[in-house]
């Protein structure tokens, strides 16, 4: 699935603007890639980007983990999320575009 965005949650359960903003911040297309939701990224080996729910915000390679999105994020959590995303963009943007 080289042109896929793998989400470990139901896409309908989060604001689409948040997902779109995250993809745009990483330089990923918001139109075109197949979005696979309610999936485990461990089941896929070659994807553009994966996002799963976990206890903390973390970024490992192309896998972003965040707390549950159902209740929104606090200001501090949003700041931490955008910090992690800017690191991803700096480290991996060229590899993604290739």
Describe the fold and architecture.
With 98 residues, this protein is α/β, with parallel strands linked by helices. The chain has 2 helices and 5 strands. The protein has helices at 16-25, 75-97; strands at 4-7, 34-36, 49-53, 58-60, 63-66. It has a 5-stranded mixed sheet with strand order 2-1-3-5-4, with helices on one face. The radius of gyration is 12 Å and the shape is globular.
Helix content: 25-40%
The class by helix and strand makeup works out as alpha/beta
Write down the secondary-structure element order: EHEEEEH
Largest sheet: 5 strands, mixed
In round numbers, the mean pLDDT is 78
Give a brief outline of the structure.
This protein has 98 residues and is α/β, with parallel strands linked by helices. Helices cover 34% and strands 19% of the residues.
Provide the descriptors you would attach to this structure in a database record:
98 residues, alpha/beta, five-stranded mixed beta sheet, 2 helices, globular, disordered C terminus
Secondary-structure blueprint:
Elements: E1 4-7, H1 16-25, E2 34-36, E3 49-53, E4 58-60, E5 63-66, H2 75-97
Parallel strand pairs: 1-2, 1-3, 3-5
Antiparallel strand pairs: 4-5
């Amino acid at each position: 699935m080289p042109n896929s965005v793998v989400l470990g949650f139901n896409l309908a359960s989060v604001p689409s603007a948040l997902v779109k903003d995250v993809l745009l911040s990483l330089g990923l297309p918001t139109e075109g890639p197949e979005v696979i939701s309610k999936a485990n990224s461990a089941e896929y080996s070659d994807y553009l980007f994966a996002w799963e729910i976990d206890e903390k915000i973390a970024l490992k390679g192309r896998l972003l983990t965040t707390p549950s999105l159902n209740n929104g994020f606090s200001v501090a959590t949003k700041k931490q999320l955008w910090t992690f995303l800017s690191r991803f963009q700096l480290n991996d943007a060229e590899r993604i575009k290739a």
